[in-house]
Amino acid acetyltransferase (Luteipulveratus halotolerans), 202 residues
Amino acid sequence: MPLAPVTLIGHLVRLEPLAPEHLDGLVDAVHDGRMWDRWYTSIPHPDDMAAEIERRIALQRTGEMLPFTAVRQADDQVLGMTTYYDIDASVPRLEIGYTWNRETAHGTGTNAESKLLLLRHAFETLDCECVGLRTQWVNHQSRAAIERLGAKQDGVLRANRRYRNGALLDAVLFSILRAEWPAVRANLEHRLRHRVPAPATL
């Protein structure tokens, strides 16, 4: 699995390798909707953003993660972060997660296209057999979004770890297999069709 940093480009969004230069844009993005102020997520506080960027880059150096910054194509505004992680080259498989986007980008198609770019790269370039996604049991918005992708629920890991407030977390696991990818890709492309700018005519 050649997990070298790569830029994935779509019509609405591009995913750039996470870099310290993204700090100001990510701090601005996390302020949009106070994204850190949700007890059931691990979205970094603005004051912790620099440390989170370094943490993810350090995990990239050890081959444990490949982090991206999501940038809107129309105006180069930084939207948030996402990653490949839990990478197992022996299968091969990986998970997509640690994802968040500024609140005003929700419902605009940028997250769906980000998932399309990440899944396409995983299945068609990295030759993955399986791509996993997970979220928290109480995060109904995230669970619904993963189900809309066409991922199937594998199960629930109860009392998997703790939230920041000390409450026990139940993790919901989903996955997409290589054989399911063509249908998932068609579904995502259909959902995004009306959001792609029409080509200019002379």
